[in-house]
Amino acid sequence: MATLARLQARATFLAHQYYFRSSVVDLFRKKEYDAAVKIQSWFRGCQVRAYIRHLHRVATTIQKWWRSYLGRQQYQVVVKLASCAMKMNLYNAMAVRIQRRWRGYRIRKYCFNYFYLKEYLRAVSETNDAIREALEEFAEMKEREEKKADLEREEKKRDYQARKMHYLLSTKQVHADTMTRL
Questions:
Q1: How many helices (H) and strands (E) does the chain have?
Q2: Cα(113)–Cα(100) distance, rounded to whole angstroms?
């Protein structure tokens, strides 16, 4: 019983001691838990950042490949257009050569035929001379008609003046001196 009484006397001390030790252990456990959480969060953060870097590199690689593909496609389009333009320029140059040769042949064959051209120019010259003579005759005729019309107008004017003043010729004029003497 004495041991029981000793145990009961020490029971409160043991309870405090047990509570203190468990609270210390709880504090250490909480510190360890917080430290473990901190280490895990740091490690997971490193993992996530490494994964994001990896994704960034992969995305950059994909973009690089896609842009190079688009660049090659655009380059092929530009090359195709340039080759079409070069072909069209070549075809146009060839067409110009053909047209130049044909026009030169046609001009030499038909237009610069010396005897034909000489005959044509002689005919044009004769036609011009005939037209010039006809125009001169026409101008002279018009001039004569105008002179005749002017003379007729002058004659009509004189007739009109004569008719207008005929009474002056048919009556005797009396001076004012004789009128006052009467």
A1: 4, 0
A2: 18
